[in-house]
């Protein structure tokens, strides 16, 4: 694995490294950690890699690694949104597989360009919609697909954070609130796409209409920091998506509720090893990570016996383990791909435009 981004002071770079290496199937061996050569070298020392493999640019890394017998097999892109397209495009042109942070790119036009690059030069491509790696999220998906709660009627997904509730903006906030580096979406692109992907991933349904209301709560910001939207799914199911980064006091409260004709499920990322199964007779059962009756997909994503907490790192590690399967040509991977990325970017573009123009309900398509 070669890492793009994740330089000194990065939060997400070390997270990717730990998750990728958790199962001993992947090793971080190279990186273009910063556009500043000195900082890239400093980061390389921190990651403990060969100093000669800490590069000053993506292009330098790809060129040098191509000459090595033990060169990188894929890159992880953990840089700001505006850099996703050029980094991915360079890797794809070199025939190198790509794992990228979400969103896919900064804009829908860039996402289409990236998808075209993949069509022209097919390589494995994955997106770290991390929450799809949780065992009980995958268990819900399996059960709903098997008809356990009947046809889905209602979907409610919330992603509540409070770290941008104040006017102060640190390093992590700076680029996310800058249209030149983040793109046209703020909160909707940062965490809203996570909620959107989770709703479609678990239900197996696609959204075909939206009614979006995006807002900028803290004065002076150029991008949205709060959003909510009504959803209509294929088949008639109704949904509600709420994502906010100005809900004072909230941490990382991603929660999903799905209701079908015969029952429902409730799951929260802050308590990820517990799934509530609401039965049609009014009763409720608790499903726990590690329970012996879980599906093969959920068991495959669980490393510890029941009662031993697993969390975000393990969830991301499940995506990396699936990606390693793809690189070996094995089946069964659930890593989100370019199609998921295009849908996320289409949602950002549609929601921003519809909210800005107060259009109300609009058709949602990816074209």
TrEMBL record:
List the InterPro entries: Gfo/Idh/MocA-like_OxRdtase_N, Gfo/Idh/MocA_oxidoreduct, GFO_IDH_MocA-like_dom, NAD(P)-bd_dom_sf
What are the residue boundaries of the Gfo/Idh/MocA-like oxidoreductase N-terminal domain, all occurrences included?
4-123
Q: Give the Gene Ontology MF terms in alphabetical order.
A: nucleotide binding
Domain GFO/IDH/MocA-like oxidoreductase: residue ranges: 137-265
Which Pfam family is one of those matched by this entry? GFO_IDH_MocA
Q: Which domain of life is it from?
A: Bacteria
- What PANTHER family does this protein map onto? CONSERVED EXPRESSED OXIDOREDUCTASE (EUROFUNG), OXIDOREDUCTASE
UniProt protein name: Oxidoreductase
User: What is the organism field in this record?
Assistant: Novosphingobium guangzhouense
